[in-house]
Amino acid sequence: MSYDHDKFKRLRNNFQKYDGQYIIGHALEKLRSGNDPNLMKKWNGWLPWHLMMIIRWTHQYGEAGGNLPQFTEANLRDFYNQVHDLKTDIHFDGIAQGQVVDEFFRRTIWFQLPYQMRMYELGASFGRQLILFVDLGEKYNLSELFRGVTGLTVLEFLECHFGMWAVFELDPNARWIDYRNSQLIPVDQWERFFRYLGKNYLQSRDFIRKHVSGPITERLGIEFQLHEHTPFERYPIYMVEDRPHIAYQRLSLVCMDCGILKRPPIYSAP
Q1: Which tens digits make up the pLDDT trace of 57-69?
Q2: Angle (CA) 8 9 13, round 5°
Q3: How far is Cα 31 from Cα 48, in angstroms, rounded to an integer?
Q4: Model pTM?
């Protein structure tokens, strides 16, 4: 599996021509228009995984501030098409040319299904996580391991996730979580939750540049980045002036679906 390096280089250089915060702002607006998992037509041709690839590479290669040209929706469409072309040009080893079904599963269905998750499907996921990490996890002191990294017990973490789910259920177009008026979950618990799960622009850029990407990843893994889920499934909340902003509801739901499994403390448990 290999990619067209010249195409990628042109796209990477384009990210440096505009203010990264405006690129991300435009991409997030398009993501929000596709919150309904039952109606792919509402995506209007803007596939969420391509848009999240743009956000990831903006953090990795983009600039911030300065006298940079204005970024428009036409520019976003151009970036989107370049990401799409870069991905579709990749040929999978072991799949004969023209094997449309195999390529569909590798290129599309792997991304599509998680972002078409129904709200009610999260009930089974929460139940699994409660049994595995609260009931069974008590034997291994898992909640204390978890608290040492996140500042929250496993149960507190799941409670906040459930509270976020309730916000989405009540308002499918919600953009902010007004946790300060919460009557069921203490404000300090919410603050610890967002402190761990949320990142502002600079923190997101640091996360991508230091912990996800880098020279080795770029040299060996561009084709794999195009075919893996976004790393922002681990941190789906965008902090704007210390307010938790819902970057994309579908991304938050994917995080809830297997949130505990993607947290570092699990890997060190007995």
Answers
A1: 999 998 877 788 8
A2: 115
A3: 6
A4: 0.82
